[in-house]
Amino acid sequence: MASDGGGRPAGKLAQHALIAAGTVFLVLGVVGVFVPVLPTTPFLLLAAACYLHSSRRLHDWLIHSRLLGPYLRHYTMVRGFPCA
């Protein structure tokens, strides 16, 4: 996938595809909170990565969200899961 040098996809189609994929991963991650067999963290990390490369606004919203933000920030700063 071509990039504009700033880590962002070059085309609008790629940007929209990453936003759509990030949204699907976000929904799966939220469902994973309630369904024990569906993992939460990998889907949330994939959503954050998709948003990072497509929309700074959506990435910032996810990282600073009241419910999911602390979990994602802890993972990225400590590079691991919280113990409790």
Notes on the protein architecture:
This protein is mainly alpha-helical and 84 residues long. The chain is 63% helix and 0% strand. The protein has one domain. It has helices at residues 12-34, 41-52, 56-63, 69-78. The mean pLDDT is 83.
List keywords for this structure.
globular, 84 residues, mainly alpha, single chain
Put the structure in a nutshell.
The chain has helices at residues 12-34, 41-52, 56-63, 69-78. The chain has 84 residues and is an all-alpha fold. The termini are far apart.
What order do the helices and strands come in, and which of them pair?
Layout: H1 12-34, H2 41-52, H3 56-63, H4 69-78
The total number of structural domains is: 1
Care to count the β-strands? 0
SSE string, helices as H and strands as E: HHHH
Mean pLDDT value? 83
Structural class by sheet pairing and helices: mainly alpha
Whole-number radius of gyration? 13 Å
The share of residues in helices is 55-70%
